[in-house]
Amino acid sequence: MLIRKLDPETFVHAYNVDLQMLYPWEGVVEPPFGAAWAVLAAGESTKPHAHQECETFFIARGQGVFSIDGERVEVGPGAVTFHEPFHNHVLTNTSDSEDLLFLTVFWEDKGRWAADPEAVAEHHREHGDDGDHPHAAAPPPRAADAAAAQAAAIERELVTAAPPTPNGDLHLGHLAGPYLCGDVYARARRLQGVDAHFVFGSDDNSIYVKTCGEGLGLGPQQTATRFTDAIEETLALAGVATTALPRPNASPHHRELTRHFFRTLYERGALVEQEAPAPWCEGCGRFLFEAYVRGRCPHCGDGVLGQTCESCGRVHDARDVVDAVCAQCGAVPGMRPLRRLVFPLSRHAGFLRDYYRRVAMNHHLRALVEGVLADGPPDVAVTHPTDWGIEVPVAGWDDQRIYVWLEMAPRYFAYARHVNDERGVDAGWERFWKAPEARVVQFFGYDNSFYYGMLLPALFHAFDPDLRLPAAFVGNEFYRLDGAKFSTTRDHRILGRDLLAEAPRDAVRFYLAWSAPEREQTNFTRQEFRATVRRELLAGWQGWIADLGRRLAAGFDGRVPATGDWTGEHRRFYHRLEELLRDAGEAYAAEGFSVQRATRVLAELVREARRFAAGEQHWDSVPSRGEERRTGIALEALAAKLSGLLAAPVMPDAADRLWRGLGYAAGPEESSLSTAGAWRDALDWLPSGQAAPLAEPLLPGLAEYLGGGE
Amino acid sequence: MLIRKLDPETFVHAYNVDLQMLYPWEGVVEPPFGAAWAVLAAGESTKPHAHQECETFFIARGQGVFSIDGERVEVGPGAVTFHEPFHNHVLTNTSDSEDLLFLTVFWEDKGRWAADPEAVAEHHREHGDDGDHPHAAAPPPRAADAAAAQAAAIERELVTAAPPTPNGDLHLGHLAGPYLCGDVYARARRLQGVDAHFVFGSDDNSIYVKTCGEGLGLGPQQTATRFTDAIEETLALAGVATTALPRPNASPHHRELTRHFFRTLYERGALVEQEAPAPWCEGCGRFLFEAYVRGRCPHCGDGVLGQTCESCGRVHDARDVVDAVCAQCGAVPGMRPLRRLVFPLSRHAGFLRDYYRRVAMNHHLRALVEGVLADGPPDVAVTHPTDWGIEVPVAGWDDQRIYVWLEMAPRYFAYARHVNDERGVDAGWERFWKAPEARVVQFFGYDNSFYYGMLLPALFHAFDPDLRLPAAFVGNEFYRLDGAKFSTTRDHRILGRDLLAEAPRDAVRFYLAWSAPEREQTNFTRQEFRATVRRELLAGWQGWIADLGRRLAAGFDGRVPATGDWTGEHRRFYHRLEELLRDAGEAYAAEGFSVQRATRVLAELVREARRFAAGEQHWDSVPSRGEERRTGIALEALAAKLSGLLAAPVMPDAADRLWRGLGYAAGPEESSLSTAGAWRDALDWLPSGQAAPLAEPLLPGLAEYLGGGE
Asked: Is residue B172 within 8 Å of B179, Cβ to Cβ?
């Protein structure tokens, strides 16, 4: 017999408890579970956490309470709890003097989670962390196609991108971020039968628009209009399909909803008056904030213009900018007292913590919001001393305007109204923001993380706790050009419209997706762009489809045959198509969204299909095996159809051309308008006898653009 | 969350304690252990007992003492004891008023007792099978993947490649075909726990060896020996790992088995005498066949040397060669009657049709065999009028020798014998050819299709209908060099040894696999080779692993941490690893075998892991999220381990280096020798605390080979 005592010397602190690891017991035994004593100090709570192991607590000493979805369950010595994988559980020591001692035992049971994380997550979302659900221990549902399962529950989605500031046209860095990705996502969802709408407006009331206009000798609204026109043109050239692209000051909804939103927050006491010193430029005769101030970030020390740091993602008040100067005249500002309305974000920390447990987001964003929560969330000024922007709908604030980032929250209600208007649906914004069959997914770049990840959810919650907040955030990092950051001032950039004038739109979209800055800064070079689209699209996809067209014409009168006899090779190829469809479904899902992966799934499908086709051609020499030959070509035509479906979100024109070339009356996107979505029928056979001329190249002009050689 | 309280109503009395059974928790969960609260009344002692389970006590409340061999150990709250199987342990409650509450957890660990039948018998004598001790639930069987399931059914495999003709060294085209692919396949099967052996000999008795020797002024055996030496060297340089590489005329089994095989066929009437006109060269004074005749294929019209057409894969008799000339002197031959033994293949057409329904093969091969069956299989001469080869073991045929393609069938029995010899197993060739737990998989190039796909199975069947014929054929097409066929005569070739002297072996293996001519002729260029290994191996795999090593060193003292808290991102990444493991399993399976796919699975794993790592780095800035950070790096280390496993069949040296760099005592291949195969444990975590220096590059010399730029 071996013995160990409870020994504070060996404690490690994690999850906000002191842990004495007991098993595995080094050099003694490695049981099929781990175990530790845990000591939770008086008044403390365990850190909310979720992991893959099953876990059980045995309470040995003290008194505590488990909090689950607002319910409280008291526990004392002898209590035993069981926690499913990935269930959040928070235990609080309710004593004000005595430790709470419990034993935790945990073990892995892959049957409960590993096979299908989405199903487990879905199960948990549906049932909450509610442990007394009698089926909590039932095995997760059969691994279903994640996208299909989601599509069944969600009927409509509002897909949003951060609004572009109309102080310049869009360059490739902008396009490769939220605009292309949001478009691809919304298209994929529509193919999956979801009534998904991509919508974002322009950010007309930003101070950056005003200062830009001053440089050009234009008024702020003139400036906004000019550049929004340019941005709209570029988006249209890039094939970014929005349901609406409302301009705030021309919208019938934006101003009214913003003022209502602000007033409601004010009346509920969510906004408070605060007087504090603020930087004042004597020469320019104004307070410095946002576009008016330049200096270094008080958090990371990097150079900043305004109050958001593009390097570390943190925000700060203008008064805290280090080595601040006036961005207009370069003078060092003094300080003057300034009275403003602020939104004390720290009041909403608890709500945000809860929210973060259920919203999907990447780890850069998650690390940022956790960091801000740990340091204490700031008070955010929601009015600014300027004459540009929406008037404050509260008496006594005529000298100030609503801060654009407060305007940003209600604009998403306005978007919902615009979508309704476009669709001829007489309904309020709640149709997208409160209905259980609807959800919101937001796309934005890392520099907007604080606002989308923290400020907006807290504002939404303060405005109306019954709102269904965004289900997923899809962030992106900066895209680089030839190894350096895109910069308009240094003219180190390629405008979207310029590349789109050179090369076929779908080739541009494909390469921006292939190289998208999803988790790290990625780089655009023309050389890589040309090499990649030559290999993957010209020689790859388009080459295969043209070859298939020739073989259909030569061997089958240009018509897709019915399947005949199957070999094992045929079955394996069909199985690959099923796998690739599933892979693409995962790549296009909001949780884990990855256009990098989606484009690679397409490339892999093309490689597999060409390899398969190379084997099939040999049937031509064996008349007695015409049935196998038919099966092979029917499978290849199915692969071609599938390639069009999987490519459609990224390359809608080419996908449309492909499906029409296969003899369909419409491409995958159009055909999905009238049905439950082409995705569901992805592996339905082409009708036998359907004429499939495949005469047109998938990407007209690509060969000419690339020229010979290279 | 589910909760139970300490409840005297549920107590059962056993071992002189009141037990509340906690686990298994009926209808909720069946963990790999059992657990119960135990209440020992004041002044009482537990009943002395011994059982097969390991057991641990956790003291929650009260005071007691353990008596062991006359010694006494006091215990109080927080004490933990561990009891080996069959150890007696008595606990006494030393209080005279207060209960002693402890938790008992017990589990079976057969490694600790099952090997000792005496202990088990002792246990049964003492306790019977009465089970009055609450027994631990046995660990649930692991969800078996396809590979593991296959491995369970098939215990050993003979993996063969077509024997190289020793009339020249191996060029890249040879290597990229059966030699690399068979090696990769056998390595993958060993990782999956199968006792797989790659074995092929040389084809010494081919007439091509004799004619080659004549050109060099060497005898045929001298020629065979010289080039087999060279081939063996090249295979060793390429890391092709054979269990044996027998030379037929030095083998203790080959000649004997061949003659036995021939004689048996003859005695069974499978070989018949036939007299027919045969081409005769007056000037050279010999019949023309195989290497002696040149002309055009009677099936497709392409140029042929000998009696097999490399273009259409068909074979023909020498007399049917169109526009035949003597390959030695160029004269047009006449015809003379020739008496030979032939194997009338058409007799076996029905058997072959049956066999083709169950054997895995690609469609090029399938189309060929179906075409031959449709046209009517030929009679194949099995003796030739020459003095080079094995003597015909039938009286009256002293002037002829056994045709090498008849010798080819029994040589696979000889291979089985050689494997047995190497492994020190005293068993006949039937161990691989008749045992239900064994199978044969054959690799060969398209030009050998007729022989492996038709002649050999029919010969095997005629020899012994109870043989278990090959389960799968893995064919390949020709590999091209700079767009044209490899050719020794035109010196349009790169010898394996030459490229292997320039570039690291694993890089060569990787690219030959990446571009392998699996279903169509593929092309080697140095430029593509360099670009691909630079992108996928140098910047990709090796770059990622080096980066992981730096991050482990900088942030974790170079040790792999245990997992902590999990986010959705973590779970999705784990799920991707499961998918990629399954993808690789499919790529390495004989049915659907594809090294092209296997290398792309590795590339995709690297891309996913790098993308995942880019997100994880942000935890560094959030001290409160150290648990998530640990999970991320533990997952990445698991991905690295998996990449080594999946790469091992193609890049064994790099995989070995990687696993050692991760702190394992051996690479995936070595570690699999003593266990059921590393594949089964592919997703088992690295032991926490394991030092993983990852100091050495995975492919030493690759960066130097590639140099800068390009």
From this structure: no
